[in-house]
Amino acid sequence: MEETTDLLQHLIRNECVNDGTPSSGHEVRSVDTLASYLQAPGVEIKRYEPQPGRGSLVLRIEGTDPKAPSLHFMGHTDVVPVTRSGWRHDPFGAELIDGEVWGRGAVDMLDVTASMAVAVRHLLTSGFRPKGTFIYSAVADEEALGTYGAQWLTENAWNDVKSDYLVTEFGGARFPMGKGAKLPIMTAEKGSQWTRLRVKGTPGHGSMPFKSDNALVKASEIITRVARYKAPLHLQELWRSFVEGIDLGTVERMALTNPTAFDVALERAPEAAQPMFYAATRTTFSPNIAHSGVKVNVIPDSAEVDIDIRTLPGDDPDAVRKMLRDAIGDLWKDVEVVHEGSNPASSSPLGTPLWDTLTSVTKRLIPDSTTVPFLIVGATDARFFRRKGVVSYGYGLMSEKIPFGQFAKMFHGNDERVDQETLRLMSDLWEQTARAFVG
């Protein structure tokens, strides 16, 4: 626990903030930290820097049996920007306060990256010689689509990172439902179709707004309509498997898998789980950025709105465009779609040997636990590997100290922190999983 705490603190203090520009991130700082920490005689560690400062690290232990399945633990080292005024403690101070490490990246996902590295070091110092090849990577740029990290590695260094199975972020947070600890293994993730709309108007003098064709005013109405839009409900097989696994009463279970009763059942679910349950069953639309105007006394003739659209499997670009038209209604005639970035949803099968290993190790560490499949509603680097045929899961183990609702809000939010019991659980999880799966 102390070892993982110390390494996590170092990674947080490296301040690898990725604002989406090529010159941000500076992940090479954490590559230096991890390379120094993991260096051991005979260990192969490779570094990659496709853009200055955008470093990734890959450590491989070749297996003794070429036919044995290979396993890859992957973390990322970049973090999103912060608004310092919203934090109670320095977001890059990595202070240990009442058994919790505070700082940007504490749960997304430097805790996983650090605990994986500690597990790897313990394996190395014990003389670990796996039957199947074992890989640990710490990659750049996950928070900005993976261009200089996982995507670059899968396209330019595939032989160094390929494996049969992979684990990355993030599962293992205890759902506040059912009896015992219900721990999600993320077997799939939503896609994205980030869209920019240009709203058209007519310029004029700001002193005469009566009956003006103000693009900003129309954009505000469009934003409101999109934010209120409720996409069609999709209770897919993965959702049904999840509901079956969390040990609910018959009435509640039936309601959450019945389209006519679902919305009422959602309102009755624990408040902390509602946003995630909603996102797991619908394509979502979140208008998050808007720009308009050139001068305060000029009525704007255009405005741009960026919408974060997260898609379920089956909702292709044409279906998403139709949803947008439905949401915007009669104002669609004033809208031009200037950008659509399509990134399809991805999934891996359940019931694999890795699923079985993660489940059995978890039961040893948390005896009353049940692992359940779930859909991660954001995006992770797993998608690049799934597209290459790698069975990829998101996992981790959270203690009971931080409630589910608080935990979910810390991703990209204020006062991000992780408790030391979680760090202990994760370090043990990764070490025992590696030994059981490839050892």
* CATH hierarchy: architecture of the largest domain: 3-Layer(aba) Sandwich
Poorly predicted sequence stretches spanning 5 or more consecutive residues = none
Strand content: 15-25%
Number of domains: 2
Distance between the termini: 23 Å
Task: Describe the secondary-structure layout.
Layout: H1 2-13, H2 28-38, E1 44-48, E2 56-61, E3 71-76, E4 96-97, E5 100-102, H3 110-125, E6 134-139, H4 150-156, H5 158-161, E7 165-168, E8 181-189, E9 191-200, E10 204-205, H6 215-228, H7 237-245, H8 250-256, H9 262-268, H10 274-281, E11 284-292, E12 298-299, E13 302-311, H11 317-328, E14 335-343, E15 346-347, H12 353-365, E16 369-376, H13 382-386, E17 391-394, H14 404-410, E18 417-419, H15 420-438
Parallel strand pairs: 3-6, 3-7, 7-17, 8-16
Antiparallel strand pairs: 1-2, 2-6, 4-5, 5-18, 8-15, 9-13, 9-14, 10-12, 11-13
What this model shows, in words?
This protein is an alpha+beta fold. It folds into two domains: 2-180 and 346-438, Zn peptidases (Aminopeptidase, 3-Layer(aba) Sandwich); 191-343, Alpha-Beta Plaits (2-Layer Sandwich), CATH 3.30.70. Helix content is 34%, strand content 23%. It has 15 helices and 18 strands. A hairpin with a 2-residue loop joins strand 4 (96-97) and strand 5. Helix 3 (110-125) crosses helix 15. The longest helix is centred in the C-terminal third of the chain and has 19 residues, at 420-438. It is globular and about 80 Å long.
